[in-house]
Design brief:
This protein is an alpha/beta fold and 330 residues long.
């Protein structure tokens, strides 16, 4: 088995709020191999983004705090690094594209100033070298007249172009890992497809590993090699992408896949709807967090939270029930 590029173990993150402590991430463990694309899916509030922000130490404190866990990058625990050490990892080795490029880019600084900063800081380039490299990066992500556009401000770009600028900034220092946090959510469908194709091409050219956070299982199908499904701050299923779509094993995953319209001619019937609401995480769940919404739930589900266990090669699931039969899992 190849050595993991990123190895997250038992990560837990909490937020203190006026209403109580929110247990946002509850013992998440996963690995990322070199050159692999990992899809992280789940509904809003399930802990996808907080997990990745926690690993990079980007959680605002207060109110947030990583209370347990380890996050090894090439054998070094990111959570134990000094502020200076982690700053040299962010951007240079692990880069992140955020969800809304308009709020991620500084509106009062030119694109050139925002792009050259990381090149000067991490790679020691002069201002002229950084400017030339920035123009190359804008050209790489498909922005026309890159030298002229460097002088523009973020509001002078369209939504899709701003997202391309964010991708160019993330790739500036040739990172080993690119974390993309729902980078196509605010874009229309045609621009979404262009951004996904761009990331796939850059991944193949540069050989980097990608973590793609999304609630769109359609994007994951054509982009990722492996998928992690999250719910209530837990990983509930972890599987190769083809196996997950062909043989989902958690009731929540089955519900997510059943809610996607089919265009391949397979008769689907009525789209599936998962009844109920996501859990409020003021108490850390001690039973299965999905049990109140699960049609197969049995008494054990309401008393004990199942561990994530392997049921097939590289396919892990956290569930007491065999969904296809409704019987307890052996």
């Amino acid at each position: 088995m190849p050595e993991l590029l990123l190895d997250v173990q038992g990560l837990e993150t909490q937020f203190r709020t006026p209403d109580g402590v929110v247990h946002a991430v509850n013992g998440v463990s996963f690995g990322l191999k070199e050159g692999e694309t990992l899809g992280v899916v789940g509904e809003s509030g399930c802990g996808k983004s907080v997990t990745m922000l926690s690993a990079l130490r980007l959680i605002p404190s207060p109110p947030g705090k990583v209370t347990a866990g380890k996050a090894f990058y090439r054998g070094q625990d990111l959570l134990k690094m000094t502020d200076e050490e982690i700053r040299h990892i962010r951007g240079a080795h692990i880069a992140m594209i955020f969800q809304d490029p308009m709020t991620s880019l500084n509106p009062v600084l030119t694109v050139e100033r925002q792009m050259t900063e990381s090149l000067e800081l991490h790679l020691g380039m002069t201002r002229d070298q950084a400017r030339n490299r920035s123009a190359e990066l804008l050209a790489m992500v498909g922005i026309p007249n890159p030298k002229d556009r460097l002088k523009d401000f973020p509001h002078q770009f369209s939504g899709g172009m701003r997202q391309r600028v964010m991708i160019a900034m993330a790739l500036a220092c040739n990172p080993q890992i690119l974390i993309a946090d729902e980078p196509t959510t605010a874009l229309d469908v045609t621009i979404q497809a262009q951004i996904v194709e761009l990331v796939k091409r850059l991944r193949d050219e540069l050989g980097m590993a990608i973590i793609w956070i999304t609630h769109d299982l359609g994007i994951v199908a054509g982009l990722a090699q492996r998928v992690v499904v999250m719910y209530g701050g837990f990983i509930i299923e972890d599987s190769p992408v083809k196996e997950l779509y062909a043989n989902p094993q958690h009731p929540y995953t089955i519900g997510l896949l059943g809610s996607i319209p089919r265009v391949d001619g397979v008769k689907h019937g009525k789209l599936y709807s998962i009844e109920g609401l996501p859990p409020t995480l003021y108490q850390k769940p001690t039973s299965c967090p999905f049990a109140p919404r699960c049609q197969w739930a049995m008494e054990r589900c309401t008393k004990e939270n199942p561990a994530l266990e392997e049921i097939a090669p590289e396919h892990r699931v956290s569930c007491w029930v065999e969904p296809k039969t409704g019987r307890p899992r052996k």
